[in-house]
Backbone:
C-alpha cells in the first residue's frame, strides 16, 4: 500500500538529521515512528476496552477488591511469602 505523507520542511529536516545519526533511511525512521505510534494506540485501546469490561462486570456482579487488598497481594510478589490473588467480594 503506497501512502503519501506531507511533512513541513522543519520536520523533514529533523527526520533526515536523525536518519543520518542512526545510519538509517528517512523512510525507515518514518516507518518505525508510525509503527511505534500504532502499537502504543492499540495498547491504549486494549486497556480501555479491558477497563470498560471490568466496570461492566462490577456493575453486574458487585464483585471487587479494594486497593489495600491489591497492594498487599502485589507487595508479596517475589518474596518467600507470595500469596494468591485475593477472592473478589461484594
Residues:
Amino acid at each position: 500500500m503506497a501512502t503519501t505523507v506531507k511533512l513541513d520542511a522543519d520536520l523533514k529536516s529533523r527526520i533526515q538529521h536523525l536518519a543520518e545519526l542512526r545510519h538509517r533511511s528517512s523512510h525507515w525512521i518514518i516507518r518505525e515512528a508510525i509503527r511505534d505510534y500504532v502499537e502504543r494506540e492499540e495498547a491504549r485501546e486494549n486497556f480501555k476496552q479491558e477497563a470498560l469490561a471490568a466496570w461492566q462486570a462490577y456493575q453486574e456482579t458487585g464483585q471487587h477488591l479494594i486497593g489495600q487488598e491489591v497492594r498487599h497481594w502485589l507487595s508479596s510478589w517475589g518474596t518467600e511469602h507470595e500469596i494468591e490473588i485475593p477472592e473478589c467480594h461484594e
The chain has a mean pLDDT of 96. Residues 8 and 58 are 48 Å apart (CA to CA). The two ends are 52 Å apart (CA to CA).
